[in-house]
Structure formats: structure tokens, C-alpha cells
Amino acid sequence: MRKPIIAGNWKMHKTIGEAVDFVNGIKDQVKDSTVDVVICAPALLLPALKEATKGTNINVAAQNMHWEEKGAFTGEISPIMLKDLGVEYCVLGHSERRQYFNETDETVNKKVLSALSHGILPIMCIGETLEDREEGKTNDVVNAQVIAGLENVSADDIEKVVLAYEPIWAIGTGKTATPEQANEVIAEIRNTLVKLYGQEKADKVRIQYGGSVKPANVSEIMSQSDIDGALVGGASLKTDDFVALVKY
Ligand SMILES: O=C(CO)COP(=O)(O)O
């Protein structure tokens, strides 16, 4: 019912040449995939990636954007620029942006609303710290991020949003949440969506898991009832691994 979505988040990796080689290395191998395939790349690589993925089933995502269409915001990228390129998705509120670049629920929310109004599909990230988890606050923290990040998102638009549950303690650490732990939190997130939008709408929203996903654990993660995809960092950088993830 929900189309799975496997997204590679390259973070701050790859040059233009490497990005194009990557696409050329995977496009034939993923062309019959029944999942949505997405590469989330640094802004500078997006034009070359859009060109290289033309005529393929590979979607391209930015890793961040400003909520304003234009203005005096040195160093920022606007939704109009992304739309002009034909970028399909944008990752918003990744924990690294929250941690290192002062991203807050409020700015994430502005970006989600802006992305939707410009026809860009947001991949909104949420997740708890190790301390939150140890204090038993996981669901409270994650639900608060969901509610704040989705404020004023209409019932018509909610199914365009992809949520990515990424427990911070599992990112880049090799520690994966067990598939059951991930599914439990994601089911709780869906409950929150039910409260906000009703069951029918909530059932349409895709929720990914992210945090040390790799070819060896992806199929178990994807077999969970509420997990609709993966947002993958490190293991998305090599063509063989990425193809294996898409073919979970
Ligand atoms: O942050 C992540 C994806 O956005 C996860 O990164 P890793 O897969 O490297 O743990």
C-alpha cells in the first residue's frame, strides 16, 4: 500500500565526477526496482545528478534548503532554485543540521511548509539522543518533533511528507536500533499521525528508518510492519552496497 523508499544520504561526500560515475554505475541495476530510489546529495552536485539521472527511475534530493524563495541569505539555497532544477525531494531537519547548524523544530517546520508549497517532497528527520532513550523519553521527544515539524501541514499535503526516524545514537556508530525497536517508535509516530490526521491519512505516510543501515541488515529492517524505507548514510556511498540496499 505504501511504496517503499530507499534513500542514500551522501552527506558531505563526492565530487561532481564521482557523483556522475555513481549514477552510471547503478542506473541499469536499479531500473526495474519497485521502490522509490533517491540520492540525497550536496547542493553543488544536484545539476549534474539531475542530468545524469535523466530517463532513469532515480530521484534526486537536496539535503537542506531555506524556507524563503529569495533574499539576503548568504550561502543558502532556495526552494525555487531546487524546483527549477527539477529536484524531487529535500531532506529537512537531519540531526546533523539540528546539532551543528542550529536547526530547530520551528525552522524545520517553516522549511517543510515551504517545500510543500513549491512541490518539493520533504523528508523530515526526527530522532532521540542516547540520553533521551536511557531516560525513557524516546516517544515523547520524537512525538514532539513530529507535532512541531508538521504544524499547519494540511491533511491534503500530509501524504506527500516522508518521515525519517533516525535515532541519533545509531547514526554512523555501527549501532543499529534493533528492527523491533525501530518499528516500535515508528508505530508510535504513526499513532501520532492518526491523532493529527486520522487513520486513513496516517496509513499513507511513509516512515523510513535511518541509522547504520547496510546491505546485511536492510531486509530485516524493511520486513517490519510500519517501516516503509531506509535513509542510509555510509552504506550509500558505494555502488554495490547501494544497489544491494535498493534490492533488499
Ligand atoms: O544519518 C543517516 C542518514 O541520514 C544515517 O547515517 P549512517 O547510515 O551512516 O548511520
UniProtKB/TrEMBL annotation:
Q: Which GO terms describe its cellular component?
A: cytosol
Q: Does the keyword Transcription regulation apply?
A: no
* Single GO BP term: glycerol catabolic process
Q: Which residues form the active site?
A: H94, E166
Task: Please state the protein's primary subcellular location.
Answer: cytoplasm
| Record InterPro entries | Aldolase_TIM, TIM_sf, TrioseP_Isoase_bac/euk, Triosephosphate_isomerase, Triosephosphate_isomerase_AS
Q: Which family does it belong to?
A: Belongs to the triosephosphate isomerase family.
- Record-given protein name: Triosephosphate isomerase
Query: Which species is this UniProt entry from?
Result: Anaeromicrobium sediminis
